[in-house]
Amino acid sequence: MVSLAYATLEQVRNGTYRYTAAGPFGEAVERARELARWGNTDGAWRTLMDALPVWQPLGPDHLAPLGWVADPLLGPLLTPERGRELLSTPRGGQAGEAPSPTAGLDPNDLAWLAHPVPGGNRTSYRFVLVEGVKPEDLPGRLADGSEEALGDPMTSDEARHRLLRGQTEFSSYDDKALMAVGRAGTRWSFAFDSAPAHFDPQRFISPAAAASAGTRAVVVWSGLRTWRGTPFFHLSVAQNGAEQYAFTYADGATRRTGDIPRALDPERFFGSREEGTEAERSLLEAVTGEFGVQLPRHAITNGRLHAFTTRSWTRPPGNGEAYAVVSIN
Question: Whole-model pTM?
Answer without folding.
Answer: 0.90
